[in-house]
Amino acid sequence: MPTRKSPTLRNRRLGAELRRLREQAGMTLDQVAAAMDVAPSTVSRMENGRSGIRTRDVRLLLDLYQVTDEATRQGLILLAEQARKRGWWVRYGNQLEKPYRDYLSLEAGAVACRTYQPQVVPGLLQTEDYTRALIEGFGLYDYGEEEAQALLAVRQQRRKALDRPEPLRLWAVIDEAVLRREIGGRAVLRDQLDYLLECSHQTNIEIQVLPFSAGAPAWNGGPFILLELPEPADLDVLFLENAAGGLYLEEPDEIELYEKAFNLLRATALPPKESREMITETAKDLA
């Protein structure tokens, strides 16, 4: 199966492999930093995939770690070269916050996405009119036309992940309130619900509705997205949306907490078939 690549994923993989080689060589961060004439924090960022690594630095590190296998050397140098390529989201850099750009890079390389949304339709499942109404309704921001168009274009580009040859697998739990909140008006919401129904029949998409009748929610910590990355060595990523644009986290204990929350939400929500029935009935009420 070919790997879906993004610069952030490449940096993470390259950094993880260089960390493994450093530990195998029995060297500390301080020792490597001294040999490179940089701060230990710089080496740490390289190994965590937080910053890019120049090919000449990769060669230096491989020499330092006494890596002589030519296939290993060439593979890591090629990975460093690929990591410097620009993703599609870079063209919108001036309009997007860095945490969101980082998230887009990871989403582009993910194989699966689990999301809980208590207020709005998940971004991957939004129609253009629904997204536009959301942008126009954001009270905290005064988006100019250029910024609004960029955000619309990003949403459209993101949706392509669901239709690629090896599509992103999406599990979405949405609150019943999402089906009833008339974002953009009744017609826009009805079209959005029709689109949700259409998407729910794709084999790679599962949508469940958390009904009001479920009572107290199994989770009240707000919306979140869990991304599953393609390689076992890649830690899953948690993205939390907030008014400042959001942040993503990778600590195992944080991931585990939100995985438990998602499983509880799925268990409480209506099954996919009953969820489709609720979406259908709600859309009829808007006709």
From TrEMBL:
The keyword DNA-binding applies. GO terms for molecular function: DNA binding. It comes from the Bacteria. This is Putative DNA-binding protein. The keyword DNA-binding applies. Residues 18-71 form the HTH cro/C1-type domain. It holds the Pfam family HTH_31. Keywords: DNA-binding. InterPro entries: Cro/C1-type_HTH (IPR001387), DUF5753 (IPR043917), Lambda_DNA-bd_dom_sf (IPR010982).
